[in-house]
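Supplementary Note 2. Why include the ligand at all?

Several targets in our set were suspected to adopt different conformations when bound, so apo predictions alone were not considered sufficient. For every target with a known small-molecule partner we therefore ran a joint prediction. The input for thiamine diphosphate is given below.
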Amino acid sequence: MLLEKINSPLDLKKLNIEQLPQLASEIRSRIIEVVSRTGGHLASSLGAVELTIALHYCLNAPYDKIIWDVGHQTYAHKILTGRNKDFDRLRQAGGLSAFLSKDESLYDVFTTGHSSSAVSLALGLVAGQRINPQDEPFKVVAVIGDGALSGGLCFEGLNNAGHLNEDLIVILNTNELSIAPNVGALSNYLNKIISLPIYNRFRESLENFVKTRLPKGSRLLKLANKFEEGLKGLFVPGIFFEELGFRYFGPFDGHNCEILISAFRNIFSLKGPRLIHVVTKKGKGYLPAEKEPIKFHSSPPFEIASGQMKKTDAPTYTDIFSNKLLALAEKNQWIVAITAAMPEGTGLDKFRDKYPERFFDVGIAEAHAVCFAAGLAKAGLRPVVAIYSTFLQRAYDQLIEEVALQELPVVICLDRAGLVSADGPTHQGIFDLGYLGQVPHLVVMAPADQEELEMMLEFALELNQPAALRYPKDKARDLPFKKDILSLGVPQVLKKGKDAALIALGSMVEPSLEASEILAKQGIDLTVINSRFVKPLEKKMFLALIQDTPCVFSIEEGLVRGGFGSTLAQLLQTKIINLGLPEDFPSTASRQELLSRYGLDSQGIAQKIKLYLKEKVYA
Ligand SMILES: Cc1ncc(C[n+]2csc(CCOP(=O)(O)OP(=O)(O)O)c2C)c(N)n1
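The joint prediction is reproduced in token form.
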């Protein structure tokens, strides 16, 4: 076994190039074995094994910096940079992070998880190095996928890099897929390049001819140079990147270490912005993932022999949203659905299959998704943008300026709101209550269970104003209380008690009801209120509900600071003890572990309330 001897990229460099295919195969087996138990981003990581080996073989990391976009393709990077032993505990509490973490390894330059930022980060490092030079300059390589390239941020970085003319190296790893099939004009363009590598050979011959055969300084050379430029436009595959100011190299076979290493050695020694295009296969080396790369993009645990995934059949909130939207779309032909590259994750795949002409996958372009939805709404449609809470952060400005300010009836459905399992700090949906709570004209709701989710989606689509609803990545609950008809800003009282009132939001309704049962056994009698709305809130109604209660608590699955409870306290001008999350980035763990860590499960809630009522201590 070669892998056993490798504890750092220095050990990797002791191998000769002929040994690298065997190492790649050992790394693949290790990745498949671990991810089959832990779940994780299998297909992208399998696709990037040789690329990772070649990069570490040619660079001097961590001195040289590799900036991986997103970080979901970095399992081989983790294994080669001293984390092979810990790799068994991938995505577990106290184990290795799902993406990259600056706190985990010196080889992870930034903590990342959101797409399309690598070029900007890398360019900042290069420009920074120019102003603050080191004794020995370090190389900076950004590794991006064709999916990342559909994000505007990536273009902004490339545009700026060409202009600054810095020594930046970008590796573009194309595999025709984002999570779902990659979309957009640029994706078509890249596919054309891949299918016609002859162009590149033509370009090389042309360059060689111009440089070697024509006398320096001659008119003929000048003419030929002009001619070469003109011809490039016709024949050079990466003309798009060349026009942006990059030298384009490729496409190279991204699964051939020898080719990659020879190309990297040559190209890394050049100057200026360079883009190296490598072509890989998602899921490479594991047949089930090669066949179904979308399913294996981020997979739950699976059986290695069959590729069968170990999934529970219980419907999730995503499933409930997905089915309800279909039912509503059947009755209302103006409903259209938009995703930013996550049709499966958001549950919009069913809508896509049934109403392809009313469905839009805009690529990893959240800002555009929300802006585009505003345009659709202005044209008389009822757009539903389904998006993960954490990724809506990318589109905050568009939500304010293009949706709310225009008072357009766009419905935003925030999946993965609250604490999320395994993906770690970059993917927590814990900021939305704060940032949505600030937006004028926006109605914000959080369902307590699946029936309420259905009611809220229907309600949002009937409103003639912007609306958002948030729900967690979890099994859908079916709580046994009869739901009142939804009315703007109006809460529902679920249980009356005399000792304290607990105003719960969305996912916190169930553990609050359970906590009230725990406390009832200890002689504490709680009122439990399901707020349903984050905003607007019917002030008089809330005041009436809590007027006879000596103590009031709020609870939310989000940051307390600037969140639901603190806003409620401000609105009611009364003291409310706010339970929720501290101002922090929750580290990797399962959702249940995180809820318990922050006292947001039934036991934790009961304990906190009891402590406060008995000793006036807020812990
Ligand atoms: C801002 C943002 N939106 C969505 C995602 C979810 N996401 C993670 S990886 C990925 C696809 C990336 O595709 P690509 O860059 O081509 O890499 P590949 O997986 O194909 O190697 C997406 C959409 C994300 N991480 N960040």
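The chain has a mean pLDDT of 93. Residues 3-175+252-291 form a domain with the Rossmann fold fold (CATH 3.40.50.970). Comparable summaries for the other entries are listed in the accompanying table.
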